[in-house]
Design brief:
Elements: H1 8-29, E1 38-45, E2 48-50, E3 57-59, E4 62-69, H2 87-90, E5 104-108, E6 112-114, E7 117-119, E8 122-131, E9 134-140, E10 143-144, E11 155-156, E12 167-172, E13 174-193, E14 196-214
Parallel strand pairs: 10-11
Antiparallel strand pairs: 1-4, 2-3, 4-5, 5-8, 6-7, 6-14, 8-9, 9-12, 13-14
Length: 216
């Protein structure tokens, strides 16, 4: 007997509805608190402090910013193992949104050189290709939906329907084991100078980082 299957767009809409309903239930159970609140990591480079009326003022700086959802571990085995490695976080997608809800976004006012390729000033999505002991950071030109819309094919919700044709750069990430466990996913800029630094994601006992330099 042939099994009848719902069209993909309908299945995706139903799945999104289930996710939204679950999220609303969690918010309700938490007294209105958002389950994965928005986080922002930011740094400012190439400016300088000049004398001010009361204290030195930093002027002429250029911003680099990451905006992302901050899920909490809640006792989960985040990464999995073997053939299931990363599948819980990917949620059926090819790659991980490296956060929660809306696609993780990178905004930069200066060129970034990552893995030998230049990322021009602008706004991008960040994804991570998860494999055991082998993570790859992806900077992509995919736009982000602020609300799930299955009819919108020009922007992504999270990493659903991600394709690599809009990749600007892919770069291996350095994986380090932290001496403590980070409960809520955190993006940060580390080892920063006016020459460059690192984009770093910390969750559980993993810190995954990718180095960059500032272009001209």
């Amino acid at each position: 007997m042939r099994r009848w299957k719902l069209p993909q767009v309908i299945r995706r809409t139903i799945a999104a509805g289930v996710v939204l309903a679950g999220a609303l239930a969690i918010v309700s159970a938490q007294g209105g608190r958002q389950a994965s609140p928005t986080g922002v990591a930011a740094t400012e480079v190439r400016g300088k402090f000049v004398p001010g009326p009361e204290a030195p003022v930093y002027q002429g700086g250029k911003w680099i910013k990451i905006t992302y959802g901050r899920p909490i571990k809640r006792g989960r085995d985040l990464w999995g193992s073997g053939a299931n490695y990363g599948k819980q976080l990917n949620d059926g997608s090819l790659v991980w949104r490296a956060g929660a809800n809306v696609s993780t976004r990178l905004e930069t006012e200066v060129p970034l050189v990552i893995n030998g390729k230049t990322v021009p000033p602008g706004e991008y999505s960040l994804f991570i290709d998860l494999k055991p002991n082998d993570w790859t950071c992806i900077v992509s030109r995919w736009a982000a939906q602020t609300r799930f819309d299955p009819a919108n094919k020009s922007a992504l919700w999270g990493a659903f329907d991600y394709t690599p044709d809009k990749d600007v750069v892919r770069s291996p990430m350095k994986l380090d084991t932290l001496p403590f466990a980070v409960d809520q996913l955190t993006w940060s800029f580390v080892d920063m100078s006016d020459a460059g630094g690192k984009l770093a994601l910390m969750w559980d006992k993993v810190m995954a980082s990718v180095s960059f330099t500032l272009g001209r």
